[in-house]
DNA sequence: CCGCATCCAATTCGATACTG
DNA sequence: CAGTATCGAATTGGATGCGG
């Protein structure tokens, strides 16, 4: 019932949050879902160059289990499955925004426009 | 000269920042250094239950290489080495704060005090 | 189209012992 | 005290092939 994969072993909230987004493609998935809102599986695959189907599916399932991503299976032929952020997922995305600003500035070397 | 371990392969700022704090103990190290300001090696080891000397030293060296942590070696006998956050490190810590709040609420289940 | 199964490669982390 | 050296375990991710 608790969220995350090592419940009870966190030393701080940041540590706990890191566990949720731990996975090579997870923040990219959040980023991709935050922009448009709803994405199909193949669409996500194209948005994340280099990811394999297996790993993408695995990370989506983990995010779903942690309540970050909603999965809608339309049970059609051919199959159609749509992914979107839950309310908590959107809040996570917002909580990640300052980190993105920091990364742009200090890792990518992009200074913010003007003063 | 660029910071991070996979320069040029980031799709967004958050992704880039994640690379810097990727490592089992790194956010805990940031957290420990953010509280007091200056910590000795053995002090950090005691603050992070379960970390081994080898891994702690390795992650500190990476954080130092990325400009997050400052290492001051006093070249004394017995040895004394002190670690602290750089200015960029402090900014990273601040950028992580919202994530910590989110984690406390949604992973640890701690609601914010009062309304 | 969406995904699972299997096998394999790479990386990371932990345990232990040792050194200036 | 503050590390390094070596080894092995565990986890993660990639490649490929098959299935509803």
UniProtKB/TrEMBL annotation, chains A, B:
Q: Which UniProt keywords apply?
A: DNA-binding, Transcription, Transcription regulation
According to the entry, every stretch annotated as the HTH hxlR-type domain falls at 12-111
> How is this protein named in the record?
Transcriptional regulator
Annotated source species: Streptomyces rubradiris (Streptomyces achromogenes subsp. rubradiris)
Lineage in the entry?
Answer: Bacteria, Bacillati, Actinomycetota, Actinomycetes, Kitasatosporales
């Amino acid at each position: 019932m608790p969220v995350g994969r090592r419940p009870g072993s966190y030393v701080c909230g940041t540590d706990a949050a890191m566990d949720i987004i731990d996975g090579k493609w997870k923040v990219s998935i959040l980023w991709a879902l935050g922009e448009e809102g709803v994405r199909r599986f193949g669409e996500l695959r194209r948005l994340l160059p280099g990811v394999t189907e297996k790993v993408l599916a695995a990370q989506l399932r983990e995010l779903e289990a942690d309540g970050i991503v909603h999965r809608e299976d339309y049970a059609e032929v051919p199959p159609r499955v749509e992914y979107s952020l839950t309310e908590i997922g959107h809040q996570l995305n917002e909580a990640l925004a300052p980190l993105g600003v920091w990364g742009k500035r200090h890792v990518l070397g992009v200074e913010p426009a003007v003063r």
